[in-house]
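Key result, reporting period 2: structure in, sequence out.
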């Protein structure tokens, strides 16, 4: 982590990082997931503590398992993305006919699907649904396909 993101040394570990790691432990997040977060998305762990705890709690409420790496990705998305942007992304998926439950299913399966730009979502959904003939519900069950090159 230090090699790839040395700027983390500029943050106050005691005031920012320690409370957020404590919040993860309190939520019974496994050490392997905490380590994964430190390596893959250290900036998420340096969020303001109240915002970070809210992201952790939201991920748990959405049904993410704190023992799995998808939990780390969900917390990353929920902490790094403004709620209004998250709602906009849900609206984009909704334009394709996905229900809120199907959007949540896709998010739980592959949380980073919410990090895609609106243009990318529209382009890939157009390809999958209109050119390949896929049902939108299939995409919701397997959102990793949104990351494949066509």
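The corresponding designed sequence is given below.
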């Amino acid at each position: 982590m230090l090699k790839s993101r040395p700027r983390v040394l500029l943050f106050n570990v005691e005031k920012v990082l320690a409370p957020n790691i404590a919040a993860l432990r309190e939520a019974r997040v496994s050490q392997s997931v905490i380590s994964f977060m430190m390596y893959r998305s250290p900036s998420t762990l340096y969020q303001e503590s109240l915002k970070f705890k809210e992201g952790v709690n939201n991920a748990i409420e959405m049904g993410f398992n704190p023992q799995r790496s998808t939990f780390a990705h969900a917390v990353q998305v929920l902490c790094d993305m403004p709620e209004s942007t998250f709602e906009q992304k849900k609206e984009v998926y909704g334009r394709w006919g996905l229900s809120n439950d199907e959007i949540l299913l896709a998010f739980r399966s592959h949380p980073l699907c919410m990090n895609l730009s609106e243009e990318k979502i529209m382009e890939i959904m157009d390809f999958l649904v209109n050119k390949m003939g896929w049902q939108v519900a299939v995409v919701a069950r397997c959102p990793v396909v949104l990351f494949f090159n066509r």
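The chain is about 65% helix and 0% strand. The mean pLDDT is 91. This case is discussed further under Risks and Mitigation.
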